[in-house]
Every structure is written in C-alpha cells, then in structure tokens.
Amino acid sequence: MDIAIIVEGKNDKSRLRRVLDESVPIFCTFGTPGTVQLEKLRKQIGDKDVYIFTDNDSSGKRIRGILRDLFPDAEHIYTRRGYPGVEHTPEDYLIEQLEKAGLESFIQYPVKYEEGK
C-alpha cells in the first residue's frame, strides 16, 4: 500500500513521525492552503492513498474541507476534541487512530520498559 498523510504544520508532522515508519511521506499544508499549495500537494502525492489528519478546531475543519475537495477518496483521521491539535495529542491516542485507519503496518510502536528492570 502506497500512502501519504497530510497534516497542517511541521509540529504535527514531527509528532506523527515519532509513531510512523520513515517510509510514510507526511505533507504539510502550512495553514490554509492556496491554489499553488494545493496543486503542489496533488503533484507530490500523485496516486498514493491519502490520509488527512488535521486539528479538531475551526481552522483544521476548514483545511479538511478544502482537502476533501482535492482528494475526495481520502481517509480522514481525527484527534479527540479537547486535545489542542495533532501536535499535542498523546502518542497512544495517535497510534489508536492510525490503527483505526488500518495503518498498523506503518506504526512504530514505542518500546515498553518493564518496571524494575
């Protein structure tokens, strides 16, 4: 499966990068994308399966709507209302949402250390 994930900014990207395999390209809109940025995204992503993961605020919802028009077949991943954006979402919740989207094979699970060792 050839995939790409779109997020709003570089902090969101770096947060996701902590739990995703390096082979998964993560693209940023850097805020509300204009026509030039949208065309650049479309060219960079090509025919990959697209996953959109934006914040659960008014700006994120607006960006998600714009991207939905550009990538109508995209899967949408959501962070929980109350988390201040993707960049501040706990890693375990990010992993849970990526699993729900069927991306288990791309997740880099953190190493759990046993107590007392």
UniProtKB/TrEMBL annotation:
<feature type="domain" description="Toprim">
    <location>
        <begin position="2"/>
        <end position="86"/>
    </location>
</feature>
<protein>
    <recommendedName>
        <fullName>Toprim domain-containing protein</fullName>
    </recommendedName>
</protein>
<dbReference type="Pfam" id="PF01751">
    <property type="entry name" value="Toprim"/>
</dbReference>
<dbReference type="InterPro" id="IPR006171">
    <property type="entry name" value="TOPRIM_dom"/>
</dbReference>
